[in-house]
């Protein structure tokens, strides 16, 4: 694994960039291009690329009717997350051999997954966050990662949300309190050649 940021081991998290979620973005070409560039840079610099996907068993036994966010998907058949196809990472940013895929059961990448075990096993101390949605997985993962004392970077153009104003406020005002926020290009340039 790559060492940077004063000796911290880094992992790039590509979160919820799945067939079912990428459809939520009206114009996803720029987002996909930015994420792909970050992934290629991570691989070129021996930075772990970890994909985080949301997925459930058939029939959603993990989803409580009390969970307002996830109980909706049981009824909304246009956004299925209980099939292998729906949990698959979008082909435009497909994992390569050696990449790690984590399946989570809630909004945060940590909740209902083995992400923390994998990060500890790899000695990761710095997380670079990307994903859909800025107000969902990115926000929740950032908050939990900060509480767990990870160093955090957020690649603003490698995150997307259906609400552009929410994305702007989070990346320019909220995330900066707990993370370094930069564009994907700024992060790429900061990596050793």
Describe this structure in words.
With 193 residues, the protein is α/β, with parallel strands linked by helices. The protein has a single domain (3-53, 84-190), classed as Isochorismatase-like (Rossmann fold, 3-Layer(aba) Sandwich). It has eight helices and seven strands. Strands 1, 2, 3, 4, 5, 6 and 7 form a seven-stranded mixed sheet that branches.
CATH topology call: Rossmann fold
Q: State the distance separating the first and last CA atoms.
A: 16 Å
The main β sheet shows up as: 7 strands, mixed
Which segments are poorly predicted (pLDDT under 50) over 5 or more consecutive residues?
Answer: 1-6
CATH architecture tag? 3-Layer(aba) Sandwich
Strand content: 15-25%
Helix content: 25-40%
Gyration radius over CA: 16 Å
**CATH class division:** Alpha Beta
Arithmetic mean of pLDDT: 86
The structure class reads alpha/beta
Shape call = globular
Instruction: Give the ordered list of helices and strands.
Output: EEHHEHHEHEHEHEH
Structural domain tally: 1
Q: How many beta-strand elements?
A: 7
* Count of separate DSSP helical elements: 8
